[in-house]
Amino acid sequence: MEKAAVAINSEPLQAVLDGLEAAVYVADAHSGEILFANRAFQALHEFDAVGQILRGLVVPLPERGDYRADPRGVEASEAPCELFDGELLQPRTGRWYHVGEQAVLWVDGRVVRLGIATDITVRKRTAEIARQQEERIARTARLITMGEMASMLAHELNQPLSAIANYCNGCAARMQAGAAAAELLPAMRKAAAQAERAGKIIARIRAFVKKSEPRRRSTPVAAILEDALALVEIDARRRGIRLSVEVASGLPDVHADQIMIEQVLLNLTRNGFDAMNDAPDDARVLRVRARTRGERFVEIAVIDRGHGIGEEDMERLFQPFITTRDEGMGIGLTICRSIIEFHDGHLTAELNPEGGTIFTFTLPIEEAIRE
What we know:
Largest sheet: 5 strands, antiparallel
Low-confidence stretches: 1-7, 326-330
Shape: elongated
Strand order of the largest sheet: 2-1-5-4-3
Number of strands: 12
Order of helices and strands: HEEHEEEHHHEHEEHEEHHEEH
Strand content: 15-25%
Distance between the termini: 49 Å
Mean pLDDT: 80
């Protein structure tokens, strides 16, 4: 069978293409037969690739359904047009490539696929290492936060545990006095309720600090707010701050990792508490507001009535190791922004017209993600 390849007759162009690190190939749009391959493409296969069938070689290709247009159906009048642009994993080698394909006209007038495959394995691995490092930093920040809140949490746990002890001692005394079982039932039920309350506190703490891979899934906003604010409610009572929660009715679920968003809320609310340390009693209110923003996002705002943030500090607010707190590390807001951006949202800060600061972040709506 006569070889169907058409050689590129321009030596300067051949030299340019052979000098590229990216693998460049041209394949027949209908049969997939390789008509041209530069030196980088040939080096990947260690044999003359021209005349071979493209699919099944080292350079990964998208599935048929992933093409913007089926290469086999592109007419000459439609070329040039983009067929695919994305990142693909080659399962056999474990290497990642950025692959771009276009339908163009070849030198003999037929429609061909011009492809460029760039090895991005190092970049992908570096990005994964950076993601893991950010996750470790975020978890460390959660542990630091829990350490700062340890005494308050101990006090909160002490209340239900003391109640359980009192109910149990009371039941024991009444049993010794000959009380009937029916008389003990109300006290035992109260003890069980207090045990359940203590268990929920411990469960929230354990879920917050445990190591886990980020898992974004459909999550009710009310559940995120309830668990996060339950952890700061103790601190709010101690400081004489009232929490005001405003959740719009019919709020859709968001696509989020609940624990990570709770970490953001915990950090923002505690910052708000600190900002209101010297505020008068009538201004010691922290508002947490949740509502939709457009058709694709839910907006959550943490609004304090504290001392506010100066213009200079506002400009560098999200930079690492910048803090206005004497004991602060300056990484809290940086981590918060990284978490929100990981969720394809945005975290911003602005001055509150009533005094104080408004921190606002967005999260994608679950249904919008599926569209």
